[in-house]
Amino acid sequence: MISFDHVTKRYGGFTALDGVSFEARPGRVTGFLGPNGAGKSTAMRVAAGLTPATSGRATVLGRPYGTLPNPGRHVGMLLDASAQHAGRTGREVLTLGAILTGVDRRRVEETLDLVGLTEKEAGRRVRNYSLGMRQRLGIAHALLADPEVLVLDEPANGLDPAGIRWMRDLLRGYAARGGTVLLSSHLLNEIERVADDIVVIGHGRIVAGGTTRELLAGSGTTVRSADDARLRSALGTAGLSASPLAAGGLLVDATPEVVGAVALEAAVVLRELRSGDGRGLEEMFFDLTADAAREEVAA
Amino acid sequence: MTTTTDAPTTAAPGGVRLPAPIEGERPTRGVPFTRLLRVELRKMFDTRAGRWLVIGIGVVVAGALGILLVRDGGDRPFEEYLQATTMPMAVLLPVVGILAVTSEWSQRTALATFTLEPRRARVAWAKTLAALVVAAGAVLCAFGLAALAHAAAIGLRGATGDWEIGSTVLLGAAGYVLLFLLQGVAFGMLLRNTPAAVVAFFVLPTAWSILGTLVSQVRTASEWLDLNRTMEPLFVGSISGEQWAQLGTSVAAWVVLPLAVGMWLTSRVEVK
């Protein structure tokens, strides 16, 4: 479990994180989606206690990261695959982690094997690693001490398609076993294939969040009423399928006009009635990305 | 891997193996300091740079001892042999201390280091203590090698031999290695950048010494604050109370203060 509670981080006049609140729950893969520079890495560093928040707080397993005893045994972190000493071998990097967290040294070989680094590759110095190999080493480092929470920043970068698929299955399996997984990416299609929940961040602000199904539904009608339960049963009677939204309200597989007519007949007061989730996730994300791209060009 | 330890790994969708769970409760106690110390010691020498520095020191020491043994039939006092072994260590080991700290930032391993032990002051202390352990080992090595070489000069080359050495000289030799290594660690923590720390470490004290001899206005200050100068009485063999005070002051200024400020910074700066 990771939870952000109104986390704000300012650098001088620049606001990197602006009141960020969300949760990554156990047994689920939470995708942290946003264009480059949106604040994903900053948020993850705040969760790890590496970057102090200006206000608000982030907790991991219910407590501030800094107070976790032997945190490596609780949380596996991969914040940057390139942040390893170029002059150390891959095996040595894991050995240091094993000594520090106090896990059996045999786990070093097991984990290397698990992420697909061969005996020979493990003996090479990190400077000679490709980005994909660094990612695998970083994932191995995160998994080394059998944590219950995984935090991975852009773990798919540099992996080949087979590697991406492997990682997807690994994370899904990890969550299925009860682990909490938070991974970031700037690619929507990468996140939507692995995540149960998606949190979208842009310009340091959370702009959307919910289950992947809900967010990707796009079409249909979002409706909020004074009595969702009654409206839902009325919709059911009319032969329309409606599913409750996490943030309250219903998502109905019909046009707003039809939903409005059912509500009128059932005499339920509507509070909100609109097509889809406003805009589709993809469209919204595209707008965010385009914004960021424009800024990069301007800079 | 063909070992039997594969058994407990669980299968995930797509046939991907998951890491085996570790049996037993998750720890409720922090990482013991001895483990941190062990890891920091290991980190000093497990990189290519660390290994080459040790090899380099070995080569320089061997060369210096070789020259002493060959020239004039090796007929020199033990003190000179000791100088030949401690000097290279005093000059080169601080680089190990600097790198132990600055590489965390330049190679960005601080991300991993401080997520595995978020109590950063403990990591800083582990590094400091590791430097002390290395210095103590180096001093023992230097003394042993010097004695061995001197004995060899007497036994093999027929040198007269002169084992006499003042206790303050021994203290001074050990102090050089120890203090400079600590100063290296301190400068590393203060600057967190390898080139800056190396340059500052080698240039600043020397520049200050030169300034102290050239400019009369800073002469008194340099008597109290120039480590090169305040160490001298130890090697002369007699050191007065005031000179002890001067030595103490200069150590406080060049080693203790930068270390204290460096540790404070380590605990506060953002790790990126």
From TrEMBL, chain A:
Keywords: ATP-binding, Nucleotide-binding, Transport. Residues 2-228 form the ABC transporter domain. SMART domains: AAA. Pfam families: ABC_tran. InterPro entries: AAA+_ATPase, ABC_transporter-like_ATP-bd, P-loop_NTPase. It comes from the Bacteria. SUPFAM superfamilies: P-loop containing nucleoside triphosphate hydrolases (SSF52540). One of its GO terms (molecular function) is ATP binding. Belongs to the ABC transporter superfamily. This is ATP-binding cassette domain-containing protein. It comes from Phycicoccus avicenniae.
From TrEMBL, chain B:
The keyword Glycoprotein does not apply. Residues 1-13 have a biased composition (Low complexity). Residues 1-26 are annotated as: Disordered. The chain crosses the membrane at residues 52-70, 82-102, 123-149, 169-191, 198-218, 244-265. Keywords: Membrane, Transmembrane, Transmembrane helix. The keyword Glycoprotein does not apply. This is ABC transporter permease. It comes from Phycicoccus avicenniae.
